[in-house]
Amino acid sequence: MPRKHRQRVIQRLRRQRRLVFESLEDRRVLASISGQVVFDFDGDAIMESHEPGLPGWQIYIDGNNNEQYDDGELAAVTDANGEYELTDLPVGFYTLRRVPQAGWQQTFPSGIGKHTVNIRNATQEVTGIDFAQQRLFTPFVPGNLLITRSSFLDNDLLMEYTPDGQLVQALVIPGSQDQSRLIAKDLVLDGQGNVQIFNGYDDVRLTTFDSITATFSDTEVPDWDMGQTFDQWGDIAAFGNYVFANEQLADGGTANGVIRFDVRDLSYQRFSGGFGLPTDLTIGLDGLLYTLNATVNNTTVLVHQPETMSLVRAFNIGQRLQSIAVDENGEIYAVTDTGLKHYQADGTAIPVTTAVNGLDIAISHDHKLVVTSDVRVTLLDASLLGAEDGNAAILGSFSIVGSVAENFLSFAAFVQDPVGSSQVGGGIDYGVLHPGNILVTNSPQTGGAAQLLEYTLSGQLVRQQDLPVFETGGARDLVTDAQGNVRVFNGTFAPRLTTYDSHTAGFVADDVQFSGWSTASAPTLGGIAAYRNYLYATDMKTQDDARSERGIVRYNLATQTFERFHSEHGDIIDLNVGLDGLLYTLGPADTPIGTVVRQYDPVTMELLKTISLPANHRAIAVDANGDIFAANPDIRHYAVNNVINVATLVGQPLSDRGLGELGDLDLDSDGRLLAAFTNGQILVTDRDFTAVTTFLTRASDGMNFAAFVSPTRPIPSARWDQFTV
After folding, report:
1. Does any domain span residue 426?
2. Which of 318, 392, 494, 657 has minimal Cβ neighbours within 10 Å of its Cβ?
3. Digit-coded pLDDT (tens) for 422-451
4. 378 CB contacts (<8 Å, ≥6 apart)?
5. Are residues 125 and 182 in the same domain?
6. Which of 135, 156, 174 finishes a domain?
7. How far is the C-alpha of 357 from the C-alpha of 563, rounded, in Å?
8. What sections of 674-721 are H helices per DSSP?
9. 661: domain range?
10. Does 232 share its domain with 355?
């Protein structure tokens, strides 16, 4: 047993050995098994003191050892501390497992992931039967909070919390494991959807967390310094594709000023002179760069245009401001050593009745404030800071991982697009592919190899390349992912996830397979879609399947793991991540005529709504308003009533124009609709079907799918774990 695990068990045993005086009564105490389910931040299978318990996990006795929970098997659900207990157990051997949850993998026990316990007598109490779970990286959810937590004793962490204080995920920041470690300070989400962290105090570096690959990397700037270890100084802000950080002339530093990074290539420029000693900086919702030069009882506020770096205005505030956030009117919200303050754009004080202390503050586009201290996060409504009831502005408050003895700094940022930016994820490098062009997989049954082709909107061929072939049936649907590569649903009964690397202009040698993944052999089936670091593919029950799986397989690009989501509603015909950032599936209705669209959260896979369509369709695409475009035998536009979830036909359907059998649809953010026909024809139109362009890619008697080269949708080793959709 690992040393830290033993310490944890010993601590629990000590708690259990405390004397408890009870009234005497006749009783029979039967045997029990107890333990804890632990959030394994770093995935090292060692349950450490700073890693919390996980509530709401089901632990069960697998009576028939079939590796899944069955009705009637004894089970317990973990409490708020992640602890469970199974009681009233007769003598015998027991196999304990946990019911898997989407987005997690078990790190302890490893392998087949079970505990075998031998109860030798009727009163035995077996403790310390623990389970450790690691969160597989999931896309950051808009409106959530990102927090850096620096610790005296443990690894520094990048954490995501919901506004009500639920820990979503935690990642260890590199360079924080030993005595010479860096100190993670402020953070921000940049215009590419990645997290930028001000990391260190001496020999500072910009640490980038790639939100697609879930990897950290460092950008070092010579002689970048930021004072003492325990100072909260060390701040970062974002405007479009720029990230700004302050620097100070400290031991080893060369300047007092601002460093501006371009996140597209991580090049940087230094701006010094005229900033004084920059103790904090932020980008306001007004799109301007604010820097502070704080002394004992005064702060000079400098306001610059972030692109030209020209000075816009400067003013003084007779108070030492530690950190500020600025709204679109230039009003300033500040944390100070005497509490929370509010100022007009010229520095005139506005009364505040809300009593909150902290070290860092940030503002959201909808005027929420987040204030962090060493161990606490407080969420506030900026419009109510001067209310008669000072507590009216407090929307919530919660403690972060770690105690006062462990933590000394924490910073927070909202998951939101930075001011001056395009949609998060819009800065994708598509390599040799041209955004807005059309990609096609074309797989004739006779007379030619399956190919990946790129066309302009007018039908001009740009490139073509033979697809790897692994079984008869050819390639099916395709999508561009958040790394700018093309992913192809390649095959039928034993398909591969084939990757075209757009940067090397070639197919990746190692295709991905998932045992049991398959589709029926109809030429219009086999759908794929992408959302941030996730890929989704339809999965159908076919004759060669060892298990009765049908539904969705989800591939995590960051962790290279699959999850299976079993459909309770029959086979899924098609799926699509809409331009609204939600996942949609198309399935059969209970009646001979009609199909059903189901809308899911792409991260949690929670079913949000069910929509009935009045015709039999075989492909869908969804726009930013949630309107559904459906194919077969024509193309129809449905508006969805979000109150009663009823789809109403908009205008007249667009006929197939005699082009053949419709098989696939796609939409891009510019409002263009793309339709592919099984015989190789392509149709491009708009949402209103007013202008139509058609062209023939390559005559096909097999399959023909198409997708735009377009940005990913906006934000919100194989395992047999199954989840229900």
Report:
1. no
2. 318
3. 544 456 888 999 999 999 998 887 767 889
4. 356, 358, 370, 371, 372, 394, 396, 397
5. no
6. 135
7. 43
8. none
9. 438-724
10. yes
Q: How confident is the model at residue 656 (pLDDT cuts 50, 70, 90)?
A: confident
The encoded tokens of residue 322 equal 């530690």
Domain boundary (87, 114, 135) is at 135
pLDDT 10s digits, 72-92: 999 999 999 999 999 999 999
Tell me: cis bond preceding 109? Omega within 30 of 0 counts.
yes
Strand (E) or helix (H) holding 60: strand 58-61
Task: Give yes or no: residues 558 and 690 share one domain.
Answer: yes
DSSP alpha helices (H): ranges in 528-576?
none
Check whether residue 410 and residue 478 sit in a common domain. Answer: no
Q: CA-to-CA distance for 686 and 597, rounded, in angstroms? A: 22
**Which tokens belong to 472?**
């008869």
Same domain, yes or no: 117 and 256: no
- How many structural domains are present in the chain? 3
Q: Beta strands 376-381 and 394-399: pairing type?
A: antiparallel
76: its two tokens: 């317990």
Give mean pLDDT, residues 340-359.
Answer: 95
The answer to whether residue 421 sits within a structural domain is no
Rounded alpha-carbon distances, angstroms, from residue 315 to 54, 230, 344, 347, 424: 49, 28, 11, 7, 34
- Give the start-end residues of each E strand in 560-679: 561-566, 574-577, 583-588, 595-600, 607-613, 619-622, 628-631, 635-641, 646-649, 662-667, 672-677
Q: How far apart are CA 311 and CA 302, in angstroms?
A: 7
Amino acid found at 495? P
CB–CB of 539/549 below 8 Å? yes
How does residue 282 score in pLDDT terms, banded at 50, 70 and 90?
Answer: very high
What type of residue is 432? V
